[in-house]
Amino acid sequence: MTITDVRVRKFSKEGKMKAVVSITIDGEFVVHDIKVIEGEKGLFIAMPSRKTAEGEYRDIAHPINSETRQQMQDIILTEYEKAIQTTEE
Q1: Distance from chain centroid for Cα 22
Q2: CB 34, CB 43: distance < 8 Å
Q3: pLDDT tens digits, residue range 5-40?
Q4: How many domains does the chain have?
Q5: Sorted alphabetically, which SUPFAM superfamilies does this protein's record hold (predicted)?
């Protein structure tokens, strides 16, 4: 799996959610609404989710293993940092 495109679509300077991101995988599959969130230990990603009838949030799409999640997070956060630098200049 290769992430072939990352698009940082929305920014927020206030609140914990810092951006909404879309990624393209292998130039063939897109995942929208990945959130960049600022937590107690720094930035992390939250996969797109839906609220269930019980009031819980469940991921709609997500990596199967922690290595893939870490790879996605590293790429997304790198692109997020680049986008911030571009908007601040």
Answers
A1: 7
A2: no
A3: 999 988 888 899 999 999 999 999 999 999 999 999
A4: 1
A5: SpoVG-like (SSF160537)
Structure tokens at 26: 């292998």
Residue 26 belongs to domain spanning: 3-86
Of 62, 38, 41, 64, which Cα lies nearest the Cα of 50? 62
Torsion from C-alpha of 40, 44, 49, 55, nearest 10 degrees: -10
Global confidence as pTM: 0.88
Q: Which residue has the higher pLDDT, 35 or 85?
A: 35
pLDDT in tens, 35-57: 999 999 999 999 999 999 999 99
Token representation of residue 81: 């940092």
The strand ranges marked E within the chain are 3-11, 17-25, 29-39, 42-46, 49-51, 57-59
CATH of the domain at 28: 3.30.1120.40
